[in-house]
From TrEMBL:
Keywords: Hydrolase
InterPro entries: Pyridox_Oxase_FMN-dep (IPR024029), Pyridox_Oxase_N (IPR011576), Split_barrel_FMN-bd (IPR012349)
NCBIfam families: PPOX_FMN_DR2398
All copies of domain Pyridoxamine 5'-phosphate oxidase N-terminal, residue ranges: 39-158
GO MF term list: hydrolase activity
One Pfam family of this chain: PNPOx_N
Protein name in UniProt: Phosphohydrolase (MutT/nudix family protein)
Domain of life (superkingdom): Bacteria
Length: 211
């Protein structure tokens, strides 16, 4: 790497260059994309307590947000429609702000101990106080906003990434001495004392802020 920060090597700038190195996908990988949800997809989503929502603000910011709830919190309305409840957060609403600019979204559903993941690409819109909001109530919290996703593409990702990372294998988890959540927050919130942030992010306190 030179003084300008440019790393040496040949930059790939075209699809032809990329395909010359990687090759073409096999039939199974190429043909796995479907346009609607089937019963296996429904079951996978129903077992998933965690998904990631990716959005783009056009020429503005990108966002990938983790979303967690008890399994079954994401509702499958039909084979082309999903409903995602909004839960209390930090009010930045980066993803929803992006949806107002560009409705295209990508979802990745994760199931504990499973290596495969389910990808859903589609278009989203924000619904305020929908008629079925009561169905999303949990621990007294009824979301005012529900994200409706119209499905365009559905496919499974193979387990290779999870197998390589040993994500679900506690014996392979690295020993870390990373700073606490409070210490990380203190880097951008110096007006709050570290002791104050440690109390805020203590698990017994933070659980009260989930809903």
């Amino acid at each position: 790497m030179d003084g300008s920060g440019t790393r040496g090597g040949t930059e790939i700038t075209s699809l032809e260059q990329l395909r010359a190195v990687i090759g073409e996908p096999g039939d199974r990988a190429r043909d796995k994309v479907r346009a609607s949800l089937d019963e296996v997809d429904r079951a996978f989503i129903g077992c998933s307590p965690m998904h990631f929502l990716a959005t783009s603000g056009g020429d503005g910011p990108l966002d990938v947000s983790p979303k967690g709830d008890p399994s079954g919190a994401v509702h499958v309305v039909d084979d082309r429609t999903l409903l995602l409840p909004d839960r209390p957060g930090n009010r930045r609403v980066d993803g929803m702000t992006n949806i107002l600019v560009d409705p295209r979204v990508a979802l990745l559903f994760v199931v504990p101990r499973r290596g495969d993941t389910l990808r859903v690409n589609g278009r989203a819109r924000l619904l305020l106080d929908p008629d079925d909001a009561a169905a999303f109530e949990h621990r007294g919290h009824r979301p005012r906003i529900v994200v409706e996703v119209s499905v365009d593409e559905v496919f499974f990702h193979c387990p290779k990434a999870f197998m390589r990372s040993h994500l679900w294998d506690p014996q392979a988890w690295p020993d870390t001495d990373l700073p606490s959540v409070a210490a990380i927050a203190h880097r951008t919130s110096p007006a709050s004392s570290l002791d104050e942030l440690e109390r805020r992010y203590a698990p017994e306190n933070y659980r009260q802020l989930l809903y």
